Amino acid sequence: MIIDWHAHVYPPEDAAKPFWRGRCPMTIEHVIELQERSGIDLTVLSNTMSISRSAAETKQDRAALQAQSLATIHRANRYMAEVQDRFRGKVVAIASCLPCGGDAFLRELERAVVEDGLRGVFIASSHDGHYPDDDEALPFFELVTRLDIPVMLHPPAAAYGEERMRDYRLLSSIGRPADSCLAIGRLIVRGIFEKFPNLKLVASHLGGGICEVIGRMDYAYNLIEESFFLGPYEPMLIKHPPSHYLKMMYLDSVSYHVPAAQCALDTVGPDHFLFGTDSPPMNPLKQQGLDLVREIDCSEVDRAKVLGGNAMRLLKLA
Considering its fold, how many domains does the chain have in total? Predict the structure, then answer.
């Protein structure tokens, strides 16, 4: 079975907003059409509307933004459940949540999983100045490990340093993946995988470059005394080099660059690598994303895991 781990859809009322000029690519109709055209058996749907701008950017009071985000997430989760039921056997859907949002967001997540049957949860690598390693997110990780659901980590609409990335679409191609890389690095060194060893975290876009820098993270840990001039490494919250914890994660294949995908596969191993396309919204790249996995150097047994077996296991579809 071929399962595309990474595709986004919006409810019709959001797809119809003027911003899209009548051309929103993130519709369930596009998902089904692309899936059938590419020979993909199942698509995992997530919704990016929870990746909203900060209170400062939207000129909203933080409490007002939180209330708006919760209402948006509830509406999106309900739509995801509706689509999952309507296209059963063709799609499965995951909920959205803000890890640092507080109890109301956690109650909504539990409702969406337990009552609506959503199969996992989508979170942003950062939101409104918060990263998922913040102490406020600990109850979130307690909940997702209790529910035993996968967590998809995806970059936000904005990223640190975006003032230098507003032209040439650099925010999308460089800034957003870099935010994911930072979030993963912080989750590792802040001991989240020590606290929650059963956490099933799936980072999108090959983890935003984490596989290229993990060696630097390792020497920063291994050479504590020798690299004193690089700055502090405290409090010490991990017991192993960072690469140990990276191998506990999963990465999706979205990159459109075979050497980069090969590096990620070799870093985390074939049991922790998932096929994804980010299509929708990048509809023209669906076939390219599938071809990439077919070009990676691995055994056919491992390729079958990447194309669908690993996702089946995570989503408890087997």
Answer: 1
Neighbouring C-beta atoms of residue 4, cutoff 10 Å: 31
- Residue 55's CATH number: 3.20.20.140
Structural domain including 177 reads 3-315
Instruction: Summarize pLDDT for 101-160 with one digit per residue, the tens.
Output: 999 999 999 999 999 999 999 999 999 889 999 999 999 999 999 999 999 999 998 777
pTM: 0.95
